[in-house]
User: Fold these one by one.
Assistant:
Number 1:
Amino acid sequence: MATSEASTTYKKIQVRRYKPEENPEKNYLNEEKGLWAWLTTVDHKKIGLMYLASIAFFFLVGGILALILRTELWTPARSFLDADLYNQVFTLHGAIMVFFFLVPSVPTVLGNFVLPLQLGAKDVAFPRLNLASFYIYLIGALFTLTAILTGGVDTGWTFYTPYSATTGGNVIMMTLGVFILGFSSILTGVNFIVTIHKLRSPGMTWAKLPLNLWALYATSIIQILATPVLAITLLLLTMERALGIGIFDPALGGDPVLYQHFFWFYSHPAVYIMIVPGFGIISEVVSTFSKKIIFGYWAIALSSLAIAFIGFLVWGHHMFTAGQSSLANLVFSFLTFMVGIPTGIKIFNWVATMYKGSIDMKTPMVYVMIFLFLFMIGGFTGIMVGALSVDIHLHDTYYVVAHFHYVMVGGMVMAFLGGIHYWWPKMFGKMYSELWAKIAAGILFIGFNMTFLPQFIMGSQGMPRRYFNYLEQFQPFHQTSTVGAYLMGTGFLIVAIYLTYSLFKGKKAGPNPWGSRALEWQTASPPPLHNFEHIPVIINGPYDYHKPMSEFQLGVASKHNGHHAEETVDVPESAQEKA
Amino acid sequence: MSSTSATEEKRLDHVQHHFVDSEQQFESAKMGMWVFIVTEILMFGGLFVAYIVYRSWYPELYLEASTQLNAFWGMVNTFVLIGSSLTVAMAIRSAQLNQIKGLIYNLYITIGLAFTFMVIKYFEYSEKLGKGIAPGEYYTYDGLEHEKANIFFSIYYMMTGLHGVHVTIGIGLMIWLVVKAKKNVFHSEYYTPVEITGLYWHLVDIIWIFLFPLLYLID
């Protein structure tokens, strides 16, 4: 702690304690009323909730498509879909889940809601741009739905050329939909980066930035660097179909592998767009429910950036069998292993945070446990498919399908659910049923493993992905998988039911139901329209559970904004011992 | 800043609720535009990569096909755009000095130069399309021997076309600035939109400065 002599170079501000209001009459949900106020709001919290509704819708659509696929796969050959329709359904399942659920989910819903709260800001840097991002997302979604209704797409979510340039259906509509969606993603990234740089409240140094924000920062960097490349790739693909420009089409002298390079230059970093914000949530939840300072703050913060950086250098591992040079294969395989290092660092630090903590097994923490278990399996199998010799055998089999579902559903979706359960009381000021939440988490865990463990086995025995038909010997595995899928569907349904129920009948949550030290819990639940009634001042890190709560509820005492004031420091009594 | 005089109020009414002061708002907007420029560079970067890949595969194709491009008009356009970069910088200068008339005139000149650029581009395109030098499978010109000539022109049309879209967006932005300037929105304390549109315009200019030699001046 700086002494008064040493702090002469710093700005001095007068602070006092602001206890969050227990039951605020006015909050962001009731201050502006009516549908129009919602549709035109620039409030980051409401925009977050609108994203939540849209994303839940697309998750439902993608989930129903998945169940249709699994039902068809109950028996070999045709059960009720023909092969062409099957191709369309798996394409839409992939494209919708990836582009309309996984990529936007955590940043746009939880990021939008929590980021300014954690910074102590009133809003994101560009609130109108934020609203525009939401509508761009909707326009992209509209294009995609039009594509589904006017011919469909059967290329797989990767739109590989030359097939995507020549097949029937409405590929142009679909790629334009994703192209437009990309802008939503880019603008959200721009907004978050600027907000984190410029809108931190007094005292919020980089070293006190919550790890969730480090993760969102890393994610935003990937979003702004990778998404434009996807945009240009899809534009070239669209032109390929519309004008036959020939850059990717071998019949016209182009090169399809170039398309794969372009596509994966975005789409591999994109998997980190999906998972890294999940890491942020895990860091927050682990510390809160272990009641303990996070172990290895800088290791976790910087490993997010390391993942963002290395993640850009591994795209070639998707093309081990596509005729890349052996040298390129070697380098990409090595770099792929490198990503395991920062990821491993995170896992160890989370486990070390729990060590000797007083762990409270509330629902968000249950999801953290599920995440750690499933994501480990997903991560290690990723190392296996990243190994050159093994990948030749496993490439394009169900093993790969199982691997990325373990990472994406077992990792990212579980982290997302953990985050939703963690911040739900903050969002709506209501508690959900803890019992039902744990039951649902259990069902999801069992259902998930039933669905995807058999796929590892099938894949290693040679069951190719994206096939409508299969050999008799795989039937028991496929049937187990299908039962598991329905179990998971039931789990998600239960989650939807008790969360909706809690909105109407839930107990009041109070400002800080988990006893967290993080800044977003030091305001009322639901928060007021501009987040805080004061300007928060931060003197401790967000995970300093060894310090009293009063030190986390400080704000600027005067009417001043804390940027230009030249006043003497007035630290409350509890903090003075250290001063 | 605690002054409540009417002029002071007017000077500060541009500060949005979530910023503590004008400076923070300005810095945020500027940083936002710089980050956006990074995304633009990566977007064009994809096309530059396609350019490099095909040039390394078919170097002779580029030498041969670029002779079809008119270096003189390309040069004229380069000067037009560099000139417009100067005038947009002068527009920002005028805004900083509170010379709203100068701001409007400079914006008019910039818009005029941008239009000139697009008109020249239009004549270049129509001349080529008339000869049958169209992108991809619509390519019917037989004056070039190289069998992949269509690919060069696909890349040419994609790069200059995307650049043209950016010029058009820039024209739209500057017309919007003129409308706002006429409503007396800008003054020396608040000219953020002028500043960041200027940044954007310099980017459009710089991309052309790379496109011109890479496409027109190979031989």
Number 2:
Amino acid sequence: MSSTVSSDKLLREFAPQIEHTSRLGKLWIGFLIVVICYGWFALYWQVSRGHIVTGMRDNVVWGVYIVNFIFFMGISYAGALISGTLHLFHAEWRKPIIRMAEFITIISLLIGPCFIMLCVGRLDRLPNLILFGRIQSPITWDVIAISTDIFGCILFLYLALLRDLGKMRDFAELKVPQWQKKMYKILALGYTGTPDQQIRLKKATDIMAAMVIAIAIIVYSVLAWIFSVTLQPGWHSTIFGPYFVIAAVYSGTGVLIVSMFFFRKAYHLEEHITLQHFVNVGVIMLVLGAFFGYFTFSEYLTKWYGSEKNDEQLIQVLLKNYFFLFILSNYVGVLVPLIVVGFKKLRTIRNITIAAGIVVVALWLNRYLIVVPTLETPYLPIQDSRLAWQHYSATWVEWALTAAGCAMFCLLFTIASKLIPIVQVSDLKEEPLEAGDIYLK
Amino acid sequence: MKRIIPVIILVVTLLTGFVQLQAQDKSKSSEPAVSVLRFNCISTSDDSIQLIATVSIKHEEGSKNLANAPVVFYATGTDGDKKIGEVKTDFHGEAILKIPAKNQYPRNEQQMLNLKATYEGNDKFEASEGEFGLKPAKLKVSFYEEDSVRYVKVEGTQLNADGTETSIGAVDLTVGIPKLFSVLKIADISLDSTGVGSAEFPGGIIGDSLGNLTVIASIEEHEIFGNVKGYSSNSWGLQKHLISPDRPTRELWTPIAPLWMIITLIVMLLGVWGHYMYAVIQLVLINKSSGKTKKESKS
């Protein structure tokens, strides 16, 4: 059976998702737009009144914006690492979920840096980063690394999409607007799947898969170094690079599982995304969770045992003022996935998704606990400052913009799935159709 | 039931996290906070006495200075308290009042001034006060050079109730140079019975861009004279240059980056962008090959 037939069948199956939007889908998009508009209002509020409307002050200069930045960049690198690794290892089961990982990479990579902009008080000085950038500064490293990463990930996604774009261009039955057909035609670059084209595409994809893995590790390490090269208790740590990378992939795996769950439900992908896929990604999450737990334990144990005055002070603050958050992020966030995926009886799609949701929340809190308590307990004691300025508490403006960021992530994900099938159609091979139309069990 | 439990766990996780984030900064107590007034007086070389009252409040995490608190200064004597003045604390929690060293405020039998600072408090903060006793004194700092050796000389005098000045007598003091965070001690001097003492002035101390140094002689917490400070300046310091114009260095803090960093960055960027270019070229070739295929099929 030719692959064209197989792809056509799959395209026929996924066509309704691209051609129509259900009432629930429209409601969902409308809801997301409302949240985004609320975020725009908060942005206007912040720009017109200045950063005084946020909880950030002279001492705690970073808040949920930087936490969101680290979080979104983290899940982006996770998407890149997962899709790149699964591609290089030719894991057959990856095919129905790899597109989601790629979308997560690109979309979060576009949203993450926006949160850095929100931290900047004088946006008009932003060009100075390029004009007067010093390459000794970790901020400059980050600017270079993120821009390199964005380009690399877009290129990798494009390479991965090329075959599907070709299929969609050639699929006559697809009832989409003319501009969309034109878009497929332009983006498909005349790819018809000739042996020469296939070889070139494979070479480029393999190289880019390896590159996105390397770049993701480097870029997230650079992000970690912004903290670890700073003399602050809790940040100045040699293991921050690998710790951040592990935390990033761990949270990204969580986001991937949650995405798989919702897209499976929304687009009825039960035949393509099975329990086995959840278990497979869940096992990756389990391994990463164990590594994350190990790194966290190692980080806090050495600090606690060293009894250095400021480290001790920080740990006291964490265990006193942030006790529940600390337990949620470092205990619940590690143990729940280990238990759920570790015990065969508990491995259901719903349980794995719930565990993944907990991981996502826990890892966001983990970033919060890395940023805020440290800024509240610096080496040089905070003096001559108002009490309210010494502790950070996010305002409605910050929460509104955070919600808008998440809504934008969901909206772009939804729009992307309306333009291109959420499951890679060109790679799925049809099994002999003896007992009905079932692909990839 | 199996379905409900995980959902409850997730909801509880989300809610607890959010509530904790919201509640972490809420203050709990509504009782008046304990206030502490630290009172200190310094006799300075410009024939005046600085009265410094620092008001702070105590709370669970330590103490914080209180701004805009009215502090009243008194001179206490056998005839009761005589009000000197009232000053509000600044952003650092300090209320500072300068009075002339020659004054008519009552003195005790040891010719000491007894001073008091009070903060009356309000609904939020409790009242507090502090006392300080001192006999006005003065330190004069000068410099001289002998046989190519530089010296710092300090002369101490005390101001009597009748307005006369006499030697401060044998007192120990320290000489230092104020730096960014604290005073760098350069000598300990014991004044002789005539109230004069000197010490060798060390070389190699970094001054400002012209080599100027401010030198402070200070007696701290003396049982009679309290705190006394004398200031003077010289140009015996080394001229400070952040970056030597003759020898530009490649350090983290200089405008020119270390060479290894530039090389590493260039190698990495070339490596990464080189691979990107390779992938882009493959895409260009795919596009070209499609054109070729079309031509072939037409012909």
Number 3:
Amino acid sequence: MARDTVTGSRIRERRIVAGMRQAELAREVGISASYLNLIEHNRRRIGGKLLVDIAQILGVEPSLLSEGAEAALISTLREAAADATAVSPELDLIDEFAGRFPGWAALIAEGHSRLGMLERTAATLTDRLTHDPHLATSMHEVLTMVTAIRSTAGILVDTKEIEPEWRNRFHRNLNEDSQRLAESSQALVEYLDGAGDAGASLSSPMEEVETMLMEHKYRFPDLENADGDVAAFVAAQPMLQSSAARTMAETSLRRLRTDAQQMPRDAFAKVLDKVGLDPSAIAHAFRVSLPAVFRRIAILSDDLLETPAGLVMCDGAGTLMLRKPIEGFSVPRFSSACPKWPLFQALGRPLHPISQRVLVTGRDARQFDCYAIAEPIGAIEFNVDPLYHAYMLIVPADAPAQNANEVGSTCRVCPAQGCAGRREPSILVDGI
Amino acid sequence: MGKRVLLIEDEPNIIEAISFILSRDGWSVATHSNGHDAVGVVLANPPELLILDVMLPGKSGFEILRELRDAEATRDMPVLMLTARGQTKDREMAERAGASRFMTKPFSNADVIDVVRELVAT
């Protein structure tokens, strides 16, 4: 059975695992049981909001139910294979393995992801212990106080005849040093506690922000009016563990709020009906920037469009700072992305909007319409080189085109041969 | 008056404690507490033994020692280095800089006296 026709079967499987009756799930998502039955027997296609709703009720990621789920799993398995040193997994059997043993495959993928996170945490903590000036200073302070106390106490105990003036002096020194030691060790413990928390989060600030945004489905109605307290909202989000993540989240939310105020949902829907999915026309209609339109389309697409749209944003160094994932367009989590993405082309031509049909290399080889632009950060000043942020809106293409540019996710799992932008060999030596 | 020991250390209570125990052991103890002008202080009146902390304000003990080893008057002067860090690389750095001995904080008073006696005797 073709990959894209078994979403219904997966829903059925997950529903049974969750112990739900068909009628119950249908009622929860607001469709008839007979329609759900047709979906579950793969006689009706499913996507968009309904798929997201069903996934939420079943407590799984939508991608696990959709056609991209196996592709994502296989992609992670390939990464695991690429990182293997002592063994050589049979890459040519990877499809069969994931298809026949999805549970075991998922276990390997999860283990690989966790191992990667733990390695990053270990590297961060090692780096901190080795190079952290604050830690070195704290340790030095503690050891210095211990030395002073030990030496002074030794004098008081070992010196049989000691003048009262010296005894009093050493007692005072002991008191001072013990107080300083208490403060130093307390500060050190607090610092190490903080370091432990940072390590325990096992994720980067960007991932924490991403998790928060996804958990709220990128919608923050309470924050969209001027009274919404963004700082309080951010402080109340348990997944935002690091201060870096909280700062990033606050910046993102303020930006999304401005977008929402400039392009309210209902007004946006009307313009969308009138001009279609044309970012330029929407920007003209609302007199806003293209990046703002990209963000608004990406966020409202789950609600207003048949298929959700994705969004990525990077800084001038090409570091991805915001990701709204989309099925079929894999955005690497930790490695560098494909340099052929219009996102990076936009960085080379700031303020020059780019629209491009792309074909994502790989098993599904799907096409997307990408819209990208780089805009300067902050105010433009004379004789000051501006810095840029680039945005790329990713919209699934309705119908395939002949002139699509091939792009990948990241070099390691990209089968394209003879690519001038390749940074490292692909593990897919023989293609897919 | 005993042999002269110069202690360069920035922690006042450690200065006081070491000064006390060495004085009681018969040494004449001079002290100095920063790295900026430490080399000049040593060269102006070289002691029989220098006790030198590694982490000093202004200039590290390693740098001070390297400069002293370049000077004729202090090339062979016994130097005991004190540090709060006992890592292998610190020991290696101390040896490369020309330290005669290396002690890691916290140390006992008896150890300090033993090492000082040993270094000056040799």
Number 4:
Amino acid sequence: MALISLAGIERVFHLGESSVHALARIDLQIEAGEYVAVVGPSGSGKSTLLNLLGLLDQPTSGTYHLEGRDVTTLSPDEQAAVRSRRIGFVFQSFHLVPRLTAAENIALPMMLAGMPASVRERRVQQALRNFGLDSRGHHRPDELSGGQRQRVAIARATIMQPAALLADEPTGNLDRATGDEVIHLLEGLNASGVTLIIVTHDAKLAARARRQITMEDGRVKADSVQAGADNPPQMPVQGGATDE
Amino acid sequence: MNNTQPGTMRRMDVFRFARAAATAYPLRTLLSILAMAIGVASVVLLTALGDGARRYVVAQFSSLGSHLVIVLPGRSATGGFNPANGMTTTPRDLTVDDAAALLRAPAIQRVAPLIVGTSEISANGRVREVVAVGSTASFMPIRNYELAQGKFLPDEDWRGSSPVAVIGTTIQKDIFANQAAVGKLIRLGDRRLRVIGVLKSTGQGMGMNTDELVIVPVGLAQALFDSNNLFRIMIQARGRDQIEAAKTQVTAIIKVRHGGEEDVTVITQDAVLATFDKLLGALTAAVAGIAAISLLVAGVLVMNVMLVAVTQRRAEIGLMKALGARGNTLRQIFLTEAAMLSLAGAVAGYLLGQLGAWGLRWAFPVFPAYAPAWAVVAALATALATGLVFGLLPAQRAARLDPVDALMRH
């Protein structure tokens, strides 16, 4: 059974009189553990697709099965629960809450899910170690480097052990070296079993993924799987590497 | 009712999160707290003023004496307490004999006739104008007067006119300076009198200021002013439950004595007290109502502040939704924040108001400016309620925010 199964998905935006088909008749299967890059020019619908996959947006028509369950018919609260437990988001601009420390930002999904503070504390400490942020837990986002911020964001996205990690231009705001480091981190997570879906228009970055989906005008233009692709490195930050 | 439902943010976490959000924007938070504080403080302070006035008047009336019934010459149209009572012309005078007749009434304990006039006092080489009161020995217990020195008027026949006087402390100071007054001779009008007592100072009170009085036997006052007309008859009933009976009996006795005409006004202290109590109670409520408008204004301000907060935190709200927050959780967070602002403002305003009331009492010790409990409770409850009601709209807006839109605007 596919992790993600889209059938006849359409997303139409109404802008005054005209309507824009952001997504048109998308049929897509993504298996658990896949590493997928979604590429395409701006306005091709790749971000809309990602929002749809993350249940932040609803399709105009079509069905979306996540882990075999039709999630398009769920109530908003049920969809929130699915987002909470099964999906992790990584954004280009990190989206950390500025007044919360790194540890609190990482704990946020657990807090929203109503998990007890003791469990949160244990998992956050583990995550800080895993992502090489041991000494940064009490720092606020504005006291962290870009790479550290994105690592906090990734730690937050994975703290609930989601099935899929959705990353929208995760390296867009980072320099080359830091960006590579973040990609290695994401690939490490993918190697440990998390399905990784990255939206990017960086061809080099897309080339690293085993499967590339190319979008154009709201349609899937190409869907290719690289045979015998690279062997992603193990979790690169396990040794406590930091980027400064 | 507790946090057993999975996937729901814990109440303590909602509280902490909202608190952190509020303190992250100190100026905004402080301003809305201030607005709420001013609202609550004005309710507390203004009701303290209103209720203080009520207490003051009630206390002053009570200090007139207990179980008091007062007979005034002349019939007032309404029969109630009326300032015009003092000015109506008297169809038939009230006399000392009328007063003496009232002693027969079973409900009456004491009667004191009262003649009032101005005269000139001279002694010790000094002269001044005074208000002279002619009465009897009963006057002191009826009015709860106390003596600083000497004794009060002798218990003699009401027609008697012992050449004695009891003076107030101001008179004593003005005429005798620091010397003892008791035993000294004074001249009042054309009479030579001996001072037999000095009243204890009562300070400025309602009605007559006893510090500036000279009290002489009623017979002497009649001769002095060459008049039989009584200004008042002060009556003490045998008890609180006897006041109405005393009133009825007084009216009946005077009517018989005045040829069947009911030409006097009988007022009871209780009736006057109740009137003032009601009047000033209503005034306090009205003032509280006016002050409550500022609470409403504060509520609108809290709403504005929270709407700004929702706009400022769009990206954060979008993020929280992406992280699995339900609409209800967001609603709770923003409502909690609004409630916190209101509550902090209410508590600050309460303290501010009490401080103001304390300042009033400190500046005017005779004025019992205490905010009534009902007003304090109402102010705090209204503050919290307005905060919550006006917090609803922003909270609703936060809960309904489209996450994609909210995240993209960042």
